[in-house]
Amino acid sequence: MSNWLLPENLADILPAEARRIEELRRNLLDLYRTYGFELVAPPLVEYLDSLLSGTGADLNLRTCKLIDQISGRTLGVRADMTPQVSRIDAHLLNREGVTRLCYCGTVLHARPAGLLSDRELLQIGAEIFGHAGVEADIEIIELALASVKRAGVVHARLDLNHPGVLRALIESDSALADFADTIFDLLGTKDIPGLTELGARIPDVQPESIRALIQLASLYGSTEAIARAREVLPPLPALRAALDDLDALIRALPGHEFSVDLADMGSGYGYHSGVVFSIYAHGWHDALVRGGRYDGVGRAFGRSRPATGFSLDLRKLSSGLPAASPAKAIRAPWGTDAVLVDALRQLRDAGEIVVQMLPGQPPRLDEFTVDRELVLDGGTWKVRAIH
C-alpha cells in the first residue's frame, strides 16, 4: 500500500477549496452572532455514554470508538455535535429561559451515510434551548435559510415533516406499538404493499389504523398535502396539533418554496419531537441542511429542555458551489530593508495579500492571481498594475 493513500471516504482539502470553506465558516458564525447566538466548542472525543446520551441507535452505529489510555473507559469520536451542545446547555450553563448556541467543528462517521458521502464532516449549526413554541422553530428555519443564502445558494427548497403525525397514529392503536420501527421503514420507502402485509399479520390491529398508515404513505408533494392529511387521517388531537404547527411555519415564511413529506421521517422518528425540516438545492444530491425540534434530549444530563436547531456540513456546502476563484495578490521582491518591510506591513494591515518572492522562486503562484507588484520608484515603494 502506498503511504500517501487515505482511508475510504476521507480526503485532503486543497488550498482554494480550504480557503473557501474557512471563509464560509467565518461568514456563517458572524451571521449567527447577529442573531444573538453564542459560540461553544465541545471536545472532539468524549466518554461514549455521555456522547450518546439521549440519542438513538443510528448515532451509535456512526460513532468511532476507542479506549481511553488513562481511564480505561470507552471513548467516542463525535459523529454529531448536537448532543454535546445539549449537554453544555443542560449541565454546564444551566441557565433559565432561552439560550441560543452555535458551533462549528469536525465530526467523524464510522461509515459514510451514503454512496457519495464523506466520513469526515465540518459541521456547523445553531440551537435554541428553552422555548417550546413554534416561534423558536420559525427563527431556526429563518436562520438556516439565511445560511445557505449567505453562502450563495439560489432557489433553495424547504422540505417539512412532523413525526407527531405518525406518533399520534401509532399511539392511537396499542397493537402498533411493537412494530413502530418497521412502520417507520415502510413509510420511508412508500411501501404500501408492505404496510398491507404488515397489517395482515399484526394481531388485534384496528383496520382503520392500517388504512390511515396507507393514506399517510401518499401524503407528500406540495403544501396541499397538509390539507389532504386533515381530510383523510383520523381527527386525533395530537395529529391535528402537528399539522397546525406545519401550517403556522408555512404562513410565517412567505416567499419560500416548500414541499411536504409526512411519510418520510429521515432519521427523526425516535429522536425528534416536533417539526423536522431539510433544505435542498440544485447542485447537491442530498439535503444541504437538516434540522428540527428535539425536546427532552437534555434530560439525560439532568435537565429536560425544549430544543430546536439545525446543522450542515461546510465541506458539502462548498463542494456544490462554483469553483473558488484565485485570490488577487501583490508580488513583492525579497528584502529586509526597513522601508520595504514597512511598506509590506502597511499593505497587509490594509487587508492586501502580498507575497514576497524568495530568491530563485519561480514567478508562478497557483493559489493567487498576481495582478499587481510592489516596485521601487524614485526611492518610494509603490504598487503598480501588471499588464
Outline the fold blueprint:
Blueprint: H1 15-34, E1 38-39, E2 45-47, H2 48-51, H3 57-62, E3 64-67, E4 74-77, H4 82-93, E5 99-108, E6 120-129, H5 134-150, E7 157-161, H6 163-171, H7 180-188, H8 192-201, H9 207-216, E8 220-221, H10 224-232, H11 237-252, E9 257-261, E10 276-280, E11 289-293, E12 307-313, H12 314-319, E13 327-333, H13 338-349, E14 354-357, E15 368-377, E16 380-385
What does this structure look like?
By secondary structure, this protein is of the alpha+beta class. It has three domains: 1-156 and 281-325, Bira Bifunctional Protein, Domain 2 (BirA Bifunctional Protein, domain 2, 2-Layer Sandwich), CATH 3.30.930.10; 161-263 and 270-276, no CATH class; 327-385. It is built from 13 helices and 16 strands. It has helices at 15-34, 48-51, 57-62, 82-93, 134-150, 163-171, 180-188, 192-201, 207-216, 224-232, 237-252, 314-319, 338-349; strands at 38-39, 45-47, 64-67, 74-77, 99-108, 120-129, 157-161, 220-221, 257-261, 276-280, 289-293, 307-313, 327-333, 354-357, 368-377, 380-385. The protein has a nine-stranded mixed β-sheet, with helices on both faces. A four-stranded mixed β-sheet has the order 14-13-15-16, covered by helices on one side. The chain has a three-stranded antiparallel β-sheet with strand order 2-4-3. α1 (15-34) runs antiparallel to α5 and α8 packs antiparallel against α9 (207-216). The protein starts with 14 loop residues before the first helix and ends with a strand. The mean pLDDT is 91.
